[in-house]
Amino acid sequence: MTGSRDDREQREMHRAVRLRERRKAQGKEAGERSIWQNLSMIGALGWLIVTPIVIGVFLGRWLDRTFDSGIFFSGALIVLGASIGSYLAWQRVHKESDL
Q: For the whole model, what pTM was predicted?
């Protein structure tokens, strides 16, 4: 029973090593990204995260004033905005890493 588990672990390790070597070769082939490309990526990620949060703040404040609900809607929409922004940033990073 342990032999099959060891075999699976070894196959998984070999797969991880091959994947790392392939990514390393692709990185050498594509060349290094410039500092400006990296800075633009940081800026884009910032906007992807901040924009949904700010929209959540304004919409939540408006709903709280309309329904006189304290900070109920503001808190919920800030968390929702942060979640959406994080998801969008995550997707962008994965899209860039696949290129």
A: 0.69
